[in-house]
Amino acid sequence: MAKLESKVPSGPLADKWRKYKAESLKLVNPANKRKYEVIVVGAGLAGSSAAATLAELGYKVKCFVIHDSPRRAHSIAAQGGINAAKNYQNDGDSVYRLFYDTIKGGDYRAREANVHRLAEVSVNIIDQCVAQGVPFAREYGGLLANRSFGGAQVSRTFYARGQTGQQLLLGAYSALMKMAGQDAVQVFSNEEMSDLVIVDGQAKGIITRNLNTGEIRRWAADAVILATGGYGNVFNLSTYARQSNATAIWRAYKRGACFGNPCYTQIHPTCIPVSGDYQSKLTLMSESLRNDGRIWVPKKKEDCKKDPASIPEEDRDYYLERIYPSFGNLAPRDVSSRAAMRMCDEGRGIGETGLGVYLDFSDAIKRLTEDGVRERYGNLFDIYHEITNENAYKTPMRIFPAVHYTMGGLWVDYNLMSNIPGLFVLGEANFSDHGANRLGASALMQGLADGYFVIPYTIGDYLATQKPGSRPSADRAEFKQAEDNVRGVIKRLLSSTGKEPVSHFHKRLGQIMWKNCGMARTKEGLEQALKEIPALREEYWKNVRVPGSADTLNQSLERAFRVADFFELGELMCLDALTREESCGGHFREEYQYPDGECKRDDEKFGHVAAWEFQGDGKAPLRNVEPLNYETVKMSVRSYK
Amino acid sequence: MVAETNSTKNISVTLRVWRQAGPTQPGKFVDYPAKNMNPNMSLLEMLDVVNDELTKQGQEPIAFAHDCREGICGTCSLVINGKPHGPHRGVASCQTYTRSFKDGETITIEPFRAHPFPVIKDLITDRSAFDKIQQAGGFVSVRTGSPCDANALPIPKDSADLAMDAASCIGCGACVAACKNASAMLFVAAKVSQFALLPQGQPERERRVLSMVKTMDDLGFGNCTNQYECSAACPKTISHDFIARMNREYLRASVLEAFRPKSTSTAGGA
Q1: Are B138 and A177 in contact (CB < 8 Å)?
Q2: A117, A333, A376, A537: which one is catalytic?
Q3: Parallel, antiparallel or unpaired: strands B28-37 and A316-317
Q4: By the 8 A CB rule, do A78 and A163 touch?
Q5: Which part of chain B has CATH 3.10.20.30?
Q6: Which residue, among A41, A374, A253, has the nearest Cα to B2 in the 3D structure?
Q7: Do A280 and B44 touch (CB under 8 A)?
Q8: CATH code for residues A477-627
Q9: In this predicted model, what pLDDT tens digit does every residue of A194-220 receive, in sequence order?
Q10: The domain defined by B128-259 carries CATH number 1.10.1060.10
Q11: What is the predicted ipTM?
């Protein structure tokens, strides 16, 4: 059984991080730093910021990226903004309030100390990004502008039009490029981590495959950082980029790293509805639109197919404003998504499929004029028009929830180290800060907090225990074994004599997951999925067809390798969802709800983190538990009414 | 910018696609039928469908670069009917939809073609030259943890907005592919202008433009001859005005560097 020590420091919540940094964390002297090699896998917000900052400190850093440039990581697609407790609006914000909103937003399933630290460093992130030349939105006086996001009653979200993720990533990328230009970081593009190497119980290297040449290589290091993002592509259709995958964290899991709360997935309420079975991805419409847009469905079922303009005001149900008057259209994502689903279940969904609700800007256009709305959201209206061929200035947008983010991920302690010493996990790839539901504009905050302001302090605490120069050689048997493992999987995939392309199986897996482990889950559904997934996996290995060879650019092989891992991870997600007999945040079990359809938590039985431990192929994984001790906040029923 | 609609019903087209097995092998066009395609599917989704068919027949699918499929990551890079990112302004290849084409049409699909972007396979090219240009100066040297408060330095909204226009570059390389000289001036100008417009960019203002332009030249990109095809092809419609701004920056920096007095001390910091 894995040892799960959270390492949360003692003392008052607000002093923990400051005191811990000053008194407990070990330091590495500057002359020794250059003797340590650190591998960073991934170059999104967390990976780029970590790689650049560690290089600034003097560590030798290697950064591995599956894209052709680190600037293309999927953080780039985040639209709306980044939260920070600056209180520039003088509207009552504070570090404590950001902390509290995040804990409550996560439905009391996150670690208090981690979340408080996140809120504390949020203010430094904005300073850092502005200094890098990130062109945040400004007011005429030259000061930074803010807007509101779901789950908050203050305006604390900083933004750069609808491209905040892009601008923050380009900031981190520029820092990374600066260090790469000085040879302080070596960036390996088109290089995918295919396995983790453990030597004497510690993470000491990785195996990669070059996606352009097929070459498989071994890399030894003193510590390994995974910043490889989330695993929402298990569902096939999601707002994730097509290359986003779980292979790095899944390989780490199979090498002994515990997987925390795999069932916590976020379904984003405002995405463009599915239009056909050819569809390859779903497109998000930023949550920021809910600042000015009003969500509604017709009151009467018979109105659903009518032109929305012909439905009079009194026949419209602005259901978020009705059910959650104090948060209204800015209710958190999980709450808004489920409300949309309930409306559709009642038969009041709109559009051809009946799976959609309206997001209406006509009131905002009356108040701000069309140009005013264009200035705030023009690029989002353009994206919507491109995809749907509809003009949202004239007719309401049609939206529907879609898989968007995974709160679960590899288990980490307060130092962001997994239960494998030397293996650190940052950003969406870890489980730590968002509990069972993430608030809007908090993903960018967490990625950059981890990379700029946490790992640079905590990695030293581990490296100080490793003798400089004690890095193992990549010739060791452990590296060979891991490399052979990768070669074995590739050979098996390429030698399969099946008939169907990988996409065929990925789609079917996605359908099983969406139906049984999506917005609403039941015992029966999850048990059914746990039968169907292994059967589909077996079929996959028999009937998949992967053309081409291993020693060249082969996109079919890349996807086949990743989808093989999605099957196993999907099964673990269902098992976790089945075992967690309560509803909390993004995990909604139909059996556990209040009469009004809200989540019914069971803090007695499930006020903990479930950290799953691999026991071998074909064996049931072990469910470890880390209790969540709430010292400051009282766990209460989450209400946005 | 929104594309016009040519088709509202399912259509059948022929995809004439550049196939090239590797960087040193010769390439050629191959025709593939795409039948009964939904007007709301993207061109990349059409390629997905064709690729699944090829796979079922045991043939190697068409390699093409793609990732976010919402026009922001800059990965997709197709020349569609002779135009980088296709017939419409202000979109990337992934935002080109079937409805833009006519039933029975032959759609030609090629990789971005430019000497500094060698073909890796089929429609995928190597654009790592852009990272090298960034490394030459596309940053503000600010150590993590050392900045002042974000509101300590007010920036006029107009400057911030213009900097954001420049910063919206997705690094796709369409500007290079569209230019008869394979010039990267729009790409470099966007980065140089973003920082030149902001107070944070001032300390390294001259070094940046000189170094980035030199690297661009060294990597084999051509020069600008004011045809503005780059702006026309840019998925973020970045204005060629930024090229003029960069030229001014370059001239200014060249003069300043030539005449600025510099310390000649070689004493160390200790």
Answers
A1: yes
A2: A333
A3: unpaired
A4: no
A5: 11-124
A6: A374
A7: yes
A8: 1.20.58.100
A9: 999 999 999 999 999 999 999 999 999
A10: yes
A11: 0.97
